[in-house]
Amino acid sequence: MRCPSCGARWKGRGPYCAQCRFRIGPSPAGAGAALRADRFEQDELELGQATALAFLARVLLIGGFVATFIPGFAIIGFLAVWTGCGIGLPGRTRTRWVGGFGLSAALLLLSVAVGTGVTAFTRSVPPDDRNAGAPFLEVTIESWQYAEGALSVTGAVANTGSAAVFSPALELIVYEDDTREAVLASDTAYPEGTFDAYLRQGQETSFEHAVRVPDQPAQIVWEIIVGDAPGRIIGAPP
């Protein structure tokens, strides 16, 4: 810039021209006011940036802390906490990021320990087989005999389902004829070793039924019913 009075180059070192002392720049008071205005604008900008960063850091810290303890989101929570500490903690940049890494790593280890403890506690409790699935009983009739008014039936019971059944009852019913309307006799029995006990999945045991039929009819019709669980009869009676 040149002086409008003498044409000498003005280097901005003061408000006057070095050759003719013509006032070119603002007065010291005006320069100070302009400098204060620039500093105020800069402070406002820095304050706004600091507020935004503080809010972002708070969101990252809270969200990351919660995510660290959610299965499948632990790594995301770790990164969020680390970033939140890096931009939100006081101190030098290196201190913030190194300290944030340590804090987020500690939270990650804590979440792993809590998850392992819960898993270990869950595994330490024996599962309740009664609620694990559904039992299914396959009743195989191996032999039967009817003589002098006495019916005896023997066979085996296998639980092929996915859960245990408690004290499974087998009912032997004797009918007068094929209409199965008139019941002559009935008997309820439990497979061997299952009275007041479980027949667990994959377990097989034997059973034996014996019942007296009144009046000793020459011919009878009978069947076995599984009372406490779904099932099927293999080797159907006559």
- Residues in helix, %: 25-40%
Whole-number mean pLDDT: 78
Termini separation comes to 123 Å
Beta-strand percentage?
A: 15-25%
SSE ordering: HHHEEEEEEEEE
* Inertia-based shape: rod-shaped
Report the uncertain regions. 116-131
Radius of gyration: 46 Å
Class computed from helices, strands and strand pairing: alpha+beta
**Secondary structure tally, helices:** 3
* Main sheet: strand order: 7-2-1-9
Number of strands: 9
Profile the largest sheet: 4 strands, mixed
Structural overview:
The longest helix has 41 residues, at 28-68. Helix 1 packs antiparallel against helix 2 (74-88) and helix 2 packs antiparallel against helix 3 (93-124). The protein has a four-stranded mixed beta sheet, with no helix packed on it. Helices cover 37% and strands 24% of the residues. It contains three helices and nine strands. The radius of gyration is 46 Å and the shape is rod-shaped. It is α+β, with helices and mostly antiparallel strands.
